[in-house]
Every structure is written in C-alpha cells, then in structure tokens.
Write the structure tokens for this entry.
Amino acid sequence: MLLTALSILASTALAFDHSALSSVLASHVRKEGVNYTALATNRAPLSAYLDSLAAADLSGAEKAEQMAFWLNAYNAMTLDVMAQEWPVLSIQQVDVGEVWKARTRMLAGKKRTLDAIEHAQLRPMGDARIHAALVCAAKSCPPLRPTAYTVADLEAELDAAARAWVATTAVTLNRTKKHISLSRIFEWFAEDFTAAYSTYDIPNVEGAHEVALNFVATYSSPKERVWIRSGDYTVDWASYDWSVNGQ
C-alpha cells in the first residue's frame, strides 16, 4: 500500500505544469486563428513559459509526459518566433525559410530547433496523431488548440486534435464532384501513418492516399466514413497554404 502511494506521488511530482501555456493560448487563440498582434505586444508570459522548460529533466518521464512536453514546446516556440518577427505574411519569410533549422531554444537542458523537436523527439514515439497537434503557423496547418496538452488527458486530447484537423484542413470532401483532396502532411510524413492506418483496403485507392484516407475515416462521422471507404471518387494532394494563421 505504501509503495503504491509513493509511486503515485512520484508520478504526480514528475508531471510538468503546462498551465502557463494554457493561459497564453486561451488569451490569443480563437477559431479564426491566432492574435499575433496581441501576442507580439506582450511576449513576456509566453517567453517565461518557454524559459521554464529550459532545465526540465525528462530522464524518468513516461511516454505521455514526454509527448505532452514536446508538443507544447514545439507549439509555444513557434508562437514565440512569430511574435518576435511579427508582422509577417508567412513563417516561411522567417530566417529565409529555414526557421525550423535556424532557430534554437534551450529546452530540457539542450539547445533545440523545431526540426529537432519534431524529428528527434516526437516522430520516434510512433504516434501519427502528433501531426494533428503540431502547428506551424500556417493556414493549412491543423488548428491550434486553445489549451496546452496534458499528461492526464493526452489520449483524449490527441483524438480531439485529430478530429479537429479532419474537420478543417486535413481533407476536402466533394461528394458532388466525387473528389477528395488531402493535406500534403499525409504525403510528407506517409511513413508515420502507415503502421496504424493501413488496415482497411479502400477500392481504387493505393499507397499514401489510402493510408491518409484511413486516418481521415477513423476521425470522421459515420456517414463520411462509409463514403470514404467506398472508394467512389478521385483523390489528390491539396496545395499547402503557408500564409499566416492569424486573425
């Protein structure tokens, strides 16, 4: 009994507090986008949150703790870069289009880039839903949640992020023209989706398109799921809109 109680206490102590980021997001994120003007005017709370991640020790953290940490770190760092550079029309204007490799921030005891967070920390965890949760400040990105990711509710939050992405920028369904356009995120990171979303054989659809559509079907309404699995349509990759996801 004592060992169980101590284990619970240790687990609770390890969980990192992301409430400061939730406060920033709640103040600046709306359905129509991010209020970068207000964020740029008062960067202090966001910068303080990022500073609090600098010396974080994740050596004993479980997968959910690490995933929540890095998802929040990535999104917070992206917001901070945009606030520093505001006004810009696109994140691709920052650092001559190399912002993901050029900008660094001290996180968990080491200087990290956005690319390092995504490719070295998150993608190896093997959960394709991260691509519904990472937001790169562009209109074609998934929508940004108005609250931070948490350890306690991470599974539900990732499912909600996947549903929100499918309902917005992940896919365009045109029943009249019998056509589907898919986000290029599915193409760029096809290998991340393959393991979990290759189980259903969709007629007339192959490869990365089929894998992407299986993901979309998983997080769609039952009616849309039936049509997606019918294969009675043409499919292509949508153009990616890199213009800023601002209000």
Q: What stands out?
A: The two ends are 52 Å apart (CA to CA). The CA atoms of residues 14 and 60 lie 8 Å apart. The chain has a mean pLDDT of 94.
